[in-house]
Structures are given as C-alpha cells and as structure tokens.
Amino acid sequence: MVTRERRLSIAGIGLLCLIATGCGGGAAGSGDTTQSPPQPPTPTFTVSLSPAAVTLAQGSTGQAVQVSVTAQNGFAGSVSVTVGTLPSGVGASPASLSLTPGTVGTFTLSASSTAAVVQQPIDVDAVAGTLSVDTSLQLTVTALAFPDPFHAIGGTLVHGFYDESRQLLFAANPGLNELDVISGQDFSVKARVPVPQPWGVDQMADGETLVIGTQAQEIITVNENTLAVTQHPYSASGGGFYGLFFPNVVAMANGKVLIIGAEQGIDSDDILDGGQYLYEWDSNANTFSQFEPSPQTVNGTWETDSLARSADHKWAIFSADQFYLYSSDSDSLASTSLNTVNPPDNLYGVRGYAINANGTEIAVASATQVTFLNQSFAVLGSTSLPGSFQSARTSVQFTADGSTLLLQYDLPLAIEEVNASTFAALGSLSGDVQPDDNVERLLATDAEGHAYVGISNGLRLVNLGQTAVPNLADGFGPDVPTCPSLDAVLPLNTSQQVQNFDPIPGYSIYVGGMPASVLDGGNEIGIPASSTAGPVDVECEDASGDTSVLADGVSYGLSPIAFSANLLPPTGNPLAYLLGVGFYDSTELGYDTNPPFAGSVSVGGQPAKNAITLGSFWPGTAFEDLAFNIPNGSPGESPSIQVSSSFGSATLPAAATYYPTPTIVPATGLLQLVYDTHRNLLYALKATEVDVLNPTTLKWQPPLPFPAAATGTYNTMELTPDGTKLVVSGEGGTNGTLPQLIVLDPDSVSPASVFTYPGNSFFYASLESIAITEFNTVVMPPSLVFDLSTSTFAPLPVFYSYFGVVRATPDGSHLYSALLDSSSGEVFSIDPATLAAQTQSFGELFWSDLAVSPDGSQFAAVQAPPYAVGDNVGFFNSNLQYLNTNAYPNFSPPDDTGVPGATYSPGGKVLVVPLGDSIEFWDAVQGTLRARLMTPEELNVLVFPEGPVAPRLALDPTGQTIYAISASGLTVINLPEPLDQISPMQWPLTVRSSDQQPWLHGSITSRMAAMRSKSRN
C-alpha cells in the first residue's frame, strides 16, 4: 500500500529533480552525468481489519473487529485509529484506538433495533503525525428476522400507509369494514376502526389525518390521534349513467386530494382499483370536481389504474391517455406521450409506476421492463424484468430512502428489487402465503426495512434487509419456495412422519416455529410434537433464505373455534355448524361426500344429532367443520359445545344462547305480513282474504274478506299511514291481467271496494309491490299511481323499464324504490307529493328486496337471489349515495337463500335480513353482523324473478318480536332484548376467509347450501 504521506514524499523528490542538476540523468543538455545518492525510504505503516466485512442484524449487541498496525521502513510511532461516520443506529466502542506496530486493538460494533438498513463501506482512519492511512470496513445492517412472518388479521387487507413517526401501519380492510391499526414493532393489531368499505389509504400533508378511498360513493378521513372517522359522501355518474365509486386517493401538499373515479361495473385493467375518471377533493373548501379527463378527450381512451405521489406531497403521477405529472406547488399538470415513458412505442402498456421521496425520479413499469425518468420525462435508464409484470392487484413502490424500486408480482407473491441508481434488477424476495386468497398487495414499506403485504386475509412481513434472490437465468420469475401441503392433524405431544410427494431438497421447514426434519432427500418430513392445541403455520425456507408460508397448514389436538350462530331456538333442531381443527383427518372422510362424524358432539350436555363432516373448512388449511342438528335447550341458557374425536376432547364455552321458546301458529297460504301499529294487530295476506292475528293471545281473529268483485290474483298489501285503509294489489279485470286494487277498512266499518285499471295492461302486468304516501296515493311500479281520495288511476311520472320494488316509511313521507332483475342496480327516491324521482344506477348490482329506515334517512337494497346463499346489502342515504355494504364475519357464513322482508329495527340501528334457515341482524352503520338467529323451521324463501316480493317478515313496534311466514304457518319469535339494544356478537376474526360475497366462490357456503338441501329432502 502506498500511503498518503509516501505519495507526498515521492512527489517532493520529483520536484527537487526539476530544480537541481544531477538527478537521474540531469537536465537535458547539461552534460552532467553525476548520479545523486539514493534517498532512504520514508517510514510508514499499513492497517489491517479482521474481519474486513461485518453484517449486523438490527438489535445486535456486539460484533468485534480487530485492528492491527504493521510497520514499514522502520516506522516506530503510535497510531490513532478511528471509525468514520456510521449509519443511524449503529455505534462503535471505543471511539478510538491507540496502537503501535505489532499490537492488536478491537472495536465493537452494535446496531439498535431501529438502526438503518444499509449496505455500504465505512471509513477507518489511521493517523500518526503527518502520516495518514485510509482503509474501509464493508458494513451491512439487516432488518430483524421475522420469527413469525405471517399474522392472521381476518378480512382482506388491500392498501396501507405506514406512519413512520407513529410506527404504525394503517391498513384498509374492506372484508371486515374496518381500518386496521397495526404496530410496526410487534405487528399486533392495536385498533380496529369501523370504516365503510375502505380501499386506498394515504396521509394528508398535516401528518395526522388519513384520507381513505372507498368502494362506495364517498371518501373518509380519520384522525390518527383520536381515530375519529368523518364521512364525505359525493355522487357522480360516469358517462351520465352509472354511479362512480372512489377507490384510490393521493393527498397533496396544497390540501387537494386526487381521487380515482371508478364507474361501478365497468371493467378496467384492475376493476377494483382503476377507473375512468379522476376527481379532486379540495379539503380546504370541501368541494369535489372532475379533474380529468377533459371534455375534449375521446370517450373510452381515459383510464387510470393507480395513483402515486412523492413523500413530500408535492408531486403525483398517473397514467391514462398520456403520462401525467402533477405539481402541488403550481397546481398544474405536465404530460408526455406513453411512448416516451414506456419505450418502445408503449408496446405492452403501462403496468405500474412510482415516484421517489422528493419527486426527482419516476419509475414506469411495463410487462417486460422498468424505465426510470426525471421530472422532465428524460430517460435516466431502464432494465429488463425477469417475467411478465401484471398490473392487477400489484404494486410499484420506492423504498423509503429511494435507493431501491420494489415491484410486486403475484400468484405467487414475490417482490422484485431494482437498484434505482444503477438500474440493475437485483433479484426477488418471497412474500408468498398459501392458500392464496387471490387478493394480495404490497401495502407499504418502512424505514426499518420491513415490507408489509396483505395476503390470505392477513399480514405477511418481508425482510428487505435480506439479500435478494438472483433472478432465474431463463428470464422467468421471480421464483419462490413452495411449501408442501402436509395435510396433517396430530394428537397433542405426538410427532409424525409425513410422506411428501414433491421432494424439496435444500429446504428448511418450520412447523409452528419448530424445526421439522427433512428426510429421504426431501421425500419425507418429520413434523415435531406440540403440547398446545390449535392450528399453526408452516414456514419453508430455501438455501438463499427466501421464505414461503403455508397458513394453518398443521393442527395439533382438537380445538373448536367458533359456532356459526349465536341465537338458537330451544325447539326445532335446526342445522348449524361447528368450526375448528382436529375433528378428523383425511383418512376419516372416505369416499362419502359428507360421512358421519366418527366422534361425538354435545350442546349443553345434550347429544347433537346427525353430526357429519364437511371436509376442509378452507381448502389448503387445517380448518374443518361439522354440521349437526341443534338439540333442544332451555330458554336463556348459554350452552357450551363439547366435541371429542381421536385427536382429543375440547369445549367451546358459552357458544350461543337459547332464545325464548318460539310459537308456530298453524296456517296455510300466507303471502305477506304487515304489522298494524294503530291497532296492535298483525295482518297476513292470503289469496282471498286478510287474516288478522292478535299478538297478545296469538289467536286468529275474524279475517277481512275480499268482496265478490275481487276475482284476481293478489300479491301484496300495505296500510295507509293513518291506518284507515288496507290496500291489497294484484291483477284482475276482464282478462285477469289488469292492475287491480282492493281497499279494505281494518275496522270493517266501511265495505271493501275493488278498483281496476281501465287502460291497456301491456306495461302493468308485473304489479308486485306498492307503497302508500302521506298524501294517500298508492305508488305502483312500474308505471301507475292510485289516488285513494279520488279513487282514480294516473301514470307514474317515473317509468320503470323493469319491475321495481317500492317501500315507504311508516308515515309515508319518504319513498324509495329499486329495480329487480336488472343489471343496472338502479335505485330511486320518490317525492311523495309530486311523485317525481331521482335515480342512481350501478353497473354490477341488482336487487331482490328493499328496506327503509323508520325516519327515512337511509335505506338498504338487498341482493339475495334464490340461486345463491346469503345476501349482499347496499346501504344508501337519502341522497341515493351508496355508502356501505355488509361484510360477513369469517365464522358465520350463510348457507341458505333469501326471504323477502328485510326491515329496519324501530330505532334504525339494525337491518333485519331473513334467510331460509336463519335471520341476520346487520349493524346499519358499520355493515357488520351483530347476530345470527336460527329459526325453528324453514322460512318461506324467495322465488325470483317470477313471483311476488311481498315481505314475509314483520316486527312489532318495540323490535323485540319477529313474525315470519314459515313452513307450517307463522313463526313468532320473542328476542331476549329489543333489536336496537342487542349486543353485537364478537365473532372470531383471526382466521382467513375467501368469502366476502359468498355465492361468488366455491367455498364452505356452497357445501353448506348442499347440506341444507340434503336436510330438506
């Protein structure tokens, strides 16, 4: 090594040779050939480090580095050795060393738990007088290894924002209608904040307010300190027809928020994120306006699939017909051709993009490459990608320090790293979790080197400090390790050898954090024993340290986790479901689709009847479920469920509550129920009369007969707001198809009258639903109105091209309607005085029922077709703004079809939705399931699209008694407490479910529905 001092000495000798003669041949032409005597070498030294490269994990307490000094040319002095500037969180002790040649000193390096994740050289300076020797130590700081890389959350995490100052991840979870607040230190859920259909998440420039886009017609703000939620509804129509949802947002420094406007039901490259419009919310003025496209833009050429901004909130980018850069400072747009940002010629389209912290570097990803640009859209460099990069459900982000670009691949999930300075593709890191719910997203990263991934209804942690796995040579990738499907259920304290049909040589496997032995070249896996009952994850790590997770892949012992209902009839023995692990293994299933359960189940000490196995609850996991008929119980009892199998015995304490004994009043031919609050009577429509029930005695009183002139077919009835008339509608007249009304006096003082529409019946043949206004007018979709004061028919100002269901508040002051069997999902608000209507359409919805809150401030349209199990609910305000939908908990999936008669509780806090075997109580604000009540016998399910949609369910004025048309008559259920006071059930949330819209997937709900069909037959 040539030291700095020695270089100076040699340079000094050269200078003397220029001045003096006789040096090394002398000056040209001097003729002097005398040789100067050689100069003695300058004393100096060298410095050695051992090791020369150090890797510290965050939280490392000490790593010794030995320093030695070696003399050269007779050096004999003392050398002061110091370590140069260290990254944040890294320390060296002692601060300096004083060494003489031949001696060895030691520095000890340590890294705090929050030390910066870096890979860089560190200067080590050695000085002795005027001599200085520089050497370097290669330092790598890695993030803490995650002993538990996957954390079950429940629901579906789709977008997130990491608040570095609070060390919190805020993750949108539309699957549970909540915003999850997750610790960046121990990764636990700190809070579950009710938020309707949250989607995109960003932080406002004030550093304490979150702004959230939704799969609804609103955006949400949340105060990070108090977690207070504020809704900001806004309606807009795409192309003048379908209503827009506002899924994704970015917040700018000037207080404006850019929002994607998605025309609901219109496909884009990513239907859940992208949209055909861009809106702007001015948070200072609280105004919304369309930002893009401009009116001059050719229809159909605009589509924005994502938004990205710089960390300083000053710059935002998005791609549509061109590529755009928004400046918050100037509130202006710059743009360039897509060919510029995605050469050559935008061949495969722009798939994703990101912008670094200060807006100086932009990355644009296509299917095959990433192009890096500056703010002037000049290309800085590019790199090829290892495999086709897709835009759907993927993410592109810079790391917090801007050094690396992350591209999320899916199915299986992997994160490709690209150096943002050299533009070299570095390789990938696995974020894979199986079974994959097909909704996966890189949510956010933090400065501590964590990547947070939403997948499989939980949170997957990826260590960005780990060296990326090089991309495959053939250009395909990224590649990730694959965990074997062990399909193992073990008794407690028992190990087991499992044959693996896909050999995995070179993998390390951990079961519940314990190492599993890999035997016979990877053909056999030894699962370790455990003394704790329940499911555990399986982690598979390849030789490079890349990791995949098989969520809940192995279970130990027997552990019941949840019961599918929490309110049970003490008689009737309906079918219900117990969910958990350790009920049976695959060998017990045999060839029967649903074999009898080989163990035993009891509820409150009473044996459950007809227990059968339903197979794996969620395929690929250890979760299982049993179906059985509930035994009789005592009202008010909260029974525990005991279950035993070859894997052990366990109890689920206080699994449900038996409600008071219901009464089934025998009856036949019931079509609809209406509760008369004026007289405290229940009316039941039949083909030729209205039966009258006394709710106190539960005895039928003399019916209200139809007059002789009523020879038609009747479907529905309604009571006038003042209670003086009961109106029955149907079809009759000379040809049997004309709209016809029967007007009855509930007190039987005035004779009943029959009114037949005198006009053409062509547009009126589907008269199935009516509502009565406060002005005593009967609204009859699709196109008629009847004035009870003048006994005259008139056209309805709003014409329905499809059959619509209409409902009113009890006082007739608010009317709403929804189209049935229509792909437009259209809803209406009807002025009771003028009958003029406002309307809003949704491209992916249609409805089968409708309920209106008692005060008319909101209504709920229900989608519960007879070919599916369960229901989807759209919650609307009085301005027809779609604000929320219902979200099923993981452990109370529906298993039966819809029943007409959805209704609000008297206080409007609960929406009651009946199904064939159960009644669901939905929180009307949060859209979450408060309770599931099993009925003692099957209710009268919907036949659709043919057949009436008249309500088969009614409530008393207190909301504590339910009346429902059922298989053998009228079921009367008295609840333990009024609906508005009912305590929400705390359903388990920590197990994943792929069933937010249960009829759209082949899952447990379809198997349960098949079982339900079996039980009926």
Describe this structure in words.
A hairpin with a 3-residue loop joins strand 68 and strand 69 (784-787). The chain is mostly beta strands and 1017 residues long. The termini are far apart. It folds into six domains: 1-42, no CATH class; 44-142, Immunoglobulins (Immunoglobulin-like), CATH 2.60.40.10; 195-336, Methylamine Dehydrogenase, Chain H (7 Propeller); 488-556, Immunoglobulin-like; 567-659, Immunoglobulin-like; 663-1012, YVTN repeat-like/Quinoprotein amine dehydrogenase (Methylamine Dehydrogenase, Chain H). Strands 37, 41, 42, 43, 44, 45, 46 and 47 form an eight-stranded mixed sheet that branches. It is globular.
Low-confidence blocks of residues: 1-33, 991-1008
Summed up, the helix count is 3
Which CATH first-tier class of the largest domain would you pick?
A: Mainly Beta
Question: Helix/strand-derived class?
Answer: mainly beta
